[in-house]
Every structure is written in C-alpha cells, then in structure tokens.
Amino acid sequence: MKGPLGHIADLQHGVKTKRVSSYDRTGGNRDCITIPAGETAELASIDGAGIIKHIWMTLSTKDAFIRRNAIIRMYWDGEESPSVQSPLGDFFGQGWGEEYNFSSLPLAAAPMKGKALNCYFPMPFGRGARITLENDSEHELRSLYFYIDYESHPSIPATMGRFHAWWNRELTGVQPPEGETEWGVIAPQGANKTDAHNYLFADIEGKGHFVGINYYVDSPGPMWYGEGDDMWMIDGEGWPGSLHGTGTEDFFNSSWCPNELYSHPYFGYARIPDRLGWMGRTHCYRFFLEDPVYFEKSLRASIEHGHDNNLALDMSTVAYWYQAEPHKPFPPVAPKASRANMPEITVRDVHRWRHEWRKSMGGAATLWGNERKPDTP
C-alpha cells in the first residue's frame, strides 16, 4: 500500500469519496445515534469495493467506563468472524477505560481531553464492509457521533491485505523459582530460552504484515516493569525467532527505563504513572509503518513480563496488522466483569507492606527501611 502522501499526485479513475455519518436525517441538529444498554448498533454497511480512510467518533453516556465497555468490530467481504475486535478506547489508544490525549500517525485521541477518537489506518475491502459497536453497559449510550470516510473503487484485489486488530489481556503470574524480582533485587535471575510463558500479543495464521501495537501495563509494585524481551516467531520457527529484542523500552524505541510522556508519530508514551517508581499505569505504543514485520504463513509475537517472566502485571494490548483472508477467528471478548481494572495500589497498601517488613525484621523502633537480614542479597 502507498505511503501517507503517495496518492496525492495520482489522478484516480472510477474512485469516489464517500462518507457514512450520524448526521440528523430529518435535517435537524441531533447529529448522533443512541445505543440502548446491552445492544449493538450497525454503524456502517457498505456494498462493493473500497477503502475506509478515516474514522472519527465521540460519545456521551453516564457510564464512565464506556471505553472498555463498548466493543468495536469490523467485518470485510461478508465474513462472519470479525477482523477487528477490541474495546473502543483500547483500539483508538486509550487504556483502562480512561480519557486522555494520545497522538500518533495512524491513531489519535484528540481534544476535548481525548474525547475525539480518530483512526487513519486504511481498510480495504472487495465485497463490502460492516462496522458495529456493542454497548456492553448498564447505561444507555446516549449520543454517539461518528464519521466513516471511505473511497469506493471499481474493484479491490484479494491480494491487498485486509486490516485486522485484536485486543488481548492477561494478569500475568510469576513464573521462575527466584520469585518476583527484577535486576536481581530479591535473588539471582534465571535464563529464559522459550516464549512459552511470555505475554502473547499476536497469534496470526495466514500471509500478511504486522504494523503496530498499543501496549497498556498496570504494575502493582514500584519496580521497573520493562526488562522483558520481545520475541517474534515467524512461519512456525522456534526460539529465539527471527526478531529477538533486548528489553521493553528498547522495543518501544526508548531507553533506560523511561517514565515520561513522549509523543512521536510512530512511537511513544501516552500515559505514565505519577507514583513511586513505575507503580501504576503506563501506555506505550509503536507503529511499524516504515518497517512492517512480514510473514508468509503465521506470526506468534510475544513479550516477557519482566525478565524471565517474573513480574505480576495487568497487561493489555491491541495489535494491528494486514493479512490475506481467511483469518484465524479471535476468542470471544472477555465478559464485562473480567475487563474491569485491577484495584489501585494505594499509600495505605504500601504502608502495610512496610509494617509486615518491620515485623519480619524484629520490630525495632528505629528501623528505617533499607536494612537487610544477613542472608538477604
């Protein structure tokens, strides 16, 4: 597919620019639709061949968690299994049901305060396109405003990859015998020569190319969460794979355990915690628009949750790619209760940890906090 400006000078033949939107069909000013609680609305049903070029939407509801409770799905060429399936906010670049500004080349959450959701990924189709939004909430989605801008074409070849996006989430567990540690703080760390226990963010069958990821991590402790290596197993190959990384921040084109906001068209940190160390929620993103990862038969892409998968983390991702159909069907979206955020770690929790540490150290009145038992590293 052509780059962002590759089509500007080319005169098109038989191509028409069209839009599906929520405009008021009566000519009035209520330019939105309403989706009752528990129902799914069809936002677009487009016949023929074309390419969706831009999606914009904003919404209003009493449900403060609607960005995780609303599920967007997209279907190409009459397929029954969606090629895109994700909570609404996660897809557009907002994690944990939150609203915050996010800026990248293909996706953005724009002012007012991140309420305007935008997507510029081109989405080709040859025999129709369908987009739905499920309101998996107890509240009515009172007003949904949207544009779906597209081009109609005389034909689109089957060899033009179809756009896909998949949301996954996992509460990772501590795997190795040394316990939950990083940088060898608790015990010497082991070696990881497999991707079996990694967090999986892409599990694809077919021919295609991978173009991006939004990565949302909620860390319950203050340690750096990002010593995990990214690992890419292409076309069924074994470990270490064709692409093997050196750390989470390296994968996201940054360095040295960053904890600051940064916005680049292709990569950055849109959300960071403001607590002790790296405790709390971090949103990293990277888009492979100049350097896609190609595969002929399959792609298994994963990342360690801490070196040797030794950290308990709440991890969510949306992966974006193009591939030839048919695609491997996605698992059902987790039930609403399972999409809820993990409880926030508070100052009180940290103080309770300190209290237990004091007891383990004998409870002396002047314990400061950095003391160690003689047999502790």
State the name of the first-level CATH class of the largest domain. Mainly Beta
Poorly predicted runs are none
Please report the total strand number as a whole number: 23
- CATH homologous superfamily of the largest domain, by name? Protein of unknown function DUF2961
Order of H and E elements:
EEEEHEEHEEEEEEEEEEEHEEEEEEH
Rg over C-alpha atoms, rounded to the nearest angstrom: 23 Å
Give the CATH topology of the largest domain.
Jelly Rolls
Approximate helicity band: under 10%
* Count of discrete domains: 2
- Apparent shape: globular
Question: Structural class of the secondary elements?
Answer: mainly beta
Strand proportion? 35-45%
Head-to-tail CA distance between termini: 54 Å
Mean model confidence by pLDDT: 95
| CATH architecture annotation name of the largest domain | Sandwich
Number of continuous helical runs: 4
Sheet with the most strands, sense and barrel status: 11 strands, mixed
InterPro entries: DUF2961
Organism: Paenibacillus allorhizosphaerae
Pfam families: DUF2961
Protein name: DUF2961 domain-containing protein
